[in-house]
């Protein structure tokens, strides 16, 4: 047994365990609706110092440092690639301030917090302070979805995280280069030349490679099926070659490479984006598990009140001062500034880069470099938990939260969608109808519904439509091809189970059927938009029915045998369309939206008249449609 323990798992078993723990933690976090980084931290600590099952230094040996370095390179490339300057929208001014003023100021204040609070040396503080500019795009996105922030503060926080992601890494690289140069005891002139050469060399190589990749992809010199492999191989090659020629220049090179490719407006952008997202999920989880498992209990136990003071200074002093000073003179309302100032969760990139540079600092003789890793974990854990529990209440208190109830985004203005939207509004479900045809929005606007004129896939929609406020999508224009395009494009963002589409004409015929990965989910027993419109023209009307313990779904079926169920609003507010009425389920407290035939309303009016009640007037929302 002692021999087995000393031998360890070996690289293959250890690699498999890291993958299972990392991806499993992310899946569990999704199921529990918790920040993934917290679950990954717990998983890494259990697999590593708590049980001793995984010891990265023992199990990977000399491969550990290169593995982490390559993974961090891909993560930083993803950060640069995500920075599309054309998509900043109305958050552009605020983001520019938070980058050009906030990043240097945040770096400076973080260094002071590290020196005076955590007791780090100026060398370690300068490197770690640069990394702390990063606010964690992989963490802020799920927090924003949960809090349902208004569009502008949400975009500001999201783009600040995306933009500062590579900037924080660059700051750490530059600071490390300075420390490394000073430690090498070179003359001042030679040291400055060495530093400038490293920065210029890395930027030039990264820019040139990025330009070459973008040009070859846009000119068709690389076939579609090879674009992702070529990109990945070029990324690794660029990092390896530049880092070999000039130590520590690889991270800067791949970040610049990502910036160039991400802003090249490539037609294959979506395929590349999905690749880097998938690669980042795997690598981020793997790196985090490795770093968490590699922490020693002694290092965590050595953290004293200085670590707590450091976290307090960062959360309550450095972050608020950075944001409030940076946004002086902007048109942002006070409440939006306060929300942004007190929202700064750190994420996996911070831990990954901090762990890497902490080891590098220790290797060149900076004694407290190894303290950076544990401090990074404490900062990430505290900020994620604090902001995870306070962001939504703070947003509501400041009046910057959207409706708590999940909404429906309808693409296509018609009699059917207008009647459905009015019915949902009566059920207190937020609805937005969009259409690229202005004439199709006349009816919804006349009935007082919220609309957006334009293409939901266009850049204008990104600036003006608060997509986070809507959990479900219905593509229901009179153009089947456009419906399929919208549903296919937005499915990865909203989730395929939340994207619905009216059945296509001839969809039930084999030669016209599409593969399941195209379009949204069909509903309504295969009825097309034309079928729904015909029912409404024949006098069918929408009705909302609350299902309770006293009035069950079975009783509703018996009373309304001819009714056509359309949609279910669950007690939790979740929305789902009815695919097959025979398999439909509605829990007590939920509401069923259905179409009733004209005789149902005539019968109801007659019964009310016999009972001496006044007729309800309009039989349903659709009756008011001109």
What would you report as the Rg, rounded to the nearest angstrom? Answer: 28 Å
- The residue fraction in helices comes out at 55-70%
Number of helical regions:
26
Tertiary shape: elongated
End-to-end separation: 82 Å
**Which percent range describes the beta-strand content?**
5-15%
User: How does the major sheet shape up?
Assistant: 5 strands, parallel
Write down the overall mean pLDDT. Answer: 80
Number of strands: 9
* Physical arrangement of strands within the biggest beta sheet: 3-2-1-4-5
**SS-based class:** alpha/beta
Describe this structure in words.
By secondary structure, the protein is of the alpha/beta class. It contains 26 helices and 9 strands. It has helices at residues 2-7, 11-32, 36-50, 56-60, 64-81, 92-100, 102-118, 122-131, 137-147, 151-183, 188-218, 224-245, 250-262, 269-294, 297-301, 305-326, 334-341, 348-363, 372-397, 415-426, 442-446, 459-464, 480-494, 529-537, 553-559, 598-610, and strands at 407-411, 431-435, 451-453, 470-475, 499-501, 541-546, 564-569, 575-577, 591-596. The chain has a 5-stranded parallel beta sheet, with helices on both faces. The protein has a 4-stranded antiparallel beta sheet with strand order 6-9-7-8. Strand 2 (431-435), helix 21 (442-446) and strand 3 (451-453) form a beta-alpha-beta unit. Helix 9 runs parallel beside helix 19. The model is unreliable at 1-6 and 615-626 (pLDDT under 50).
